[in-house]
Amino acid sequence: MAYKRESGPMEQYKQEFIEFMVDSKALKFGDFTLKSGRKSPFFMNAGAYVTGAQLKRLGEYYARAIHDNFGDDFDVLFGPAYKGIPLSVTTAIAYSELYGREVRYCSNRKEAKDHGDTGILLGSPLNAGDRVILIEDVTTSGKSIEETYPILMAQGEVEIRGLMVSLNRMEKGPGGKESALDEIRGTYGFETASIITMEDVVAHLYNRPYKGEVYINDQRKASIDEYYKIYGV
Asked: Tens digit of pLDDT for each residue in 203-215?
């Protein structure tokens, strides 16, 4: 991975988000075995955001990144079950507060409900012509999009404007040549983006003390470098 960022200084909110992930223990460094079986020197888990203050800030970071990458021309934030449900809710709230835009939230149920509030969807219904932003924590295989896409398309003429994740791990997807986000873009034809990339994380934390601790020292950076020699794109 090339760690030199050529696009100028990192935006302030991205630097804050990296530190927020570390503070919330959503981003950890060490030795982890991922669901894919890969041995990784870092691990990201959005399930670590559990308090009201954490969720409020998380929604604000997502809202800013969506605003920067996709603009405001959308109607619905769709968060695939289960982790996407609180993400879509808190981001919809943040969008209202930050940009004065009322966007709806929608999620899917794992199983369709046949009584009361029936159907496969939770939150707002999807209407013909709705422009949708998908929102997830992190994407490594694209499996959740594979499950979600047919549900969205079954609702009628909806347009997916993009997918926003919190961290782009910048590693090969299941196809073995492109990143998971690039594979999704190629397969489904909509744009993908992330609040931050792993390149941003390394650039911000490498040999830089944060609250008295260096999270990415020379040894840990070497482990990350080795990981990306095998799995990086």
From this structure: 999 999 999 999 9
